[in-house]
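Hi all, posting the design record for the shared folder.

TITLE: backbone redesign
STEP: 1 of 1
STRUCTURE INPUT:
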């Protein structure tokens, strides 16, 4: 030891510093490798534990589901296996989470009474309380997980609690809360939209449309009630849903939106009136055409929608004016609309083409191409 000390003492100062740094780096590397191996071991142990729990739970669940489907099975027999599940879970948070995930996964593949039985098991095992407790968490991942679980297991009692997270600062929590309220709102009233002030993402719009598409259309809310919502994304969503579900009762309000200050609403209203085949609104579209002549997007949409709902010579004359529009897309829509709007409109198109020295010839050939017809 003395010899080693003498050896170190005899080294230059710079060499000592280098050796010290090398020693620290080597020690750090060893600690990192130890931590990496330890975390891998812990992770693998957790996975094995989850697999064991899942297999054990599945055996009991299979028996319970089989008994529930048989009208001759005594309630006490089923209760025994439910008690076994309670015993297997104990107070383990991991076990409760595995059971919750398992019930949600099974419910997605079942319908009718079998799915209802899983919801009953979820409540009997008090897993609804387990998920409700997550709503108090400050960790957004845990809170979002709790909201998702309650929605998947149709826990209607949690509606008001979930509603508190509707305008959360965290996007994931907000989106999960939004979709949970849609799912738990059995009346499809969507009344929570009245209090929604955050942006609606495309993902949310897609998910809510998917959900409403499989519900009874007679129970759908009147989306026109949100056309004037202070949240622009909600107003646009409502207009889009009125279009998707063809709510003809919304036509009168859509006519009013043509005078709105927000151009995105005007543009969507024009599209929606065309999609709804609101022939009575053609004059409303024509009246605002000159106001938005310089707006390429709105002019293009007016030209397209008039091709769907225009029915008078005044409408064809307006479309003929669009043939002189400086924007190609607007001229294209006008040509397409006139070409499919009857004999009078087609004659106007051909006459305009002659006046313009056949400058519309390529556009006309394009829209007349059979392979490109709708």
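Okay, here is what came back for every position:
SEQUENCE:
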């Amino acid at each position: 030891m003395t010899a080693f000390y003498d050896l170190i003492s005899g080294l230059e100062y710079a060499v000592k510093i280098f050796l010290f740094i090398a020693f620290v780096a080597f020690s750090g590397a060893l600690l990192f490798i130890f931590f990496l191996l330890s975390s891998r071991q812990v992770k693998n142990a957790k996975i094995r534990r989850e697999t064991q729990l899942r297999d054990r739970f599945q055996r009991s669940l299979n028996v319970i589901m089989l008994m529930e489907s048989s009208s001759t099975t005594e309630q006490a027999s089923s209760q025994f296996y439910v008690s076994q599940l309670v015993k297997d879970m104990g107070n383990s948070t991991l076990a409760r989470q595995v059971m919750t995930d398992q019930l949600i996964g099974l419910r997605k593949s079942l319908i009718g009474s079998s799915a209802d039985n899983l919801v009953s098991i979820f409540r009997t095992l008090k897993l609804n309380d387990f998920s409700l407790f997550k709503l108090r968490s400050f960790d957004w991942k845990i809170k979002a997980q709790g909201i998702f679980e309650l929605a998947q297991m149709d826990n209607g009692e949690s509606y008001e609690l979930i509603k508190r997270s509707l305008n959360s600062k965290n996007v994931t929590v907000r989106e999960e809360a939004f979709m949970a309220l849609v799912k738990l709102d059995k009346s499809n009233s969507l009344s929570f939209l009245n209090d929604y002030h955050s942006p609606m993402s495309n993902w949310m719009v897609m998910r809510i449309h998917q959900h409403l598409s499989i519900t009874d259309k007679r129970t759908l809310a009147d989306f026109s009630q949100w056309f004037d919502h202070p949240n622009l994304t909600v107003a646009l969503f409502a207009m889009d849903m009125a279009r998707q579900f063809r709510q003809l009762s919304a036509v009168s309000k859509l006519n009013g939106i043509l005078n709105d200050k927000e151009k995105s609403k005007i543009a969507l209203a024009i599209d929606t009136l065309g999609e709804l085949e609101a022939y009575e609104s053609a004059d409303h579209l024509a009246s605002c055409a000159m106001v938005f002549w310089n707006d390429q997007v709105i002019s293009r949409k007016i030209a397209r929608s008039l091709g769907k709902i225009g029915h008078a010579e005044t409408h064809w004359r307006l479309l003929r004016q669009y043939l002189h529009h400086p924007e190609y897309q607007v001229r294209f829509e006008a040509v397409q609309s006139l070409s499919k709007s009857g004999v009078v409109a087609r004659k106007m198109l051909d006459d305009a083409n002659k006046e313009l020295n056949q400058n519309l010839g390529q556009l006309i050939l394009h829209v007349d191409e059979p392979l490109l017809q709708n």
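COMMENT: The chain has a mean pLDDT of 84.
Let me know if anyone wants the other runs.
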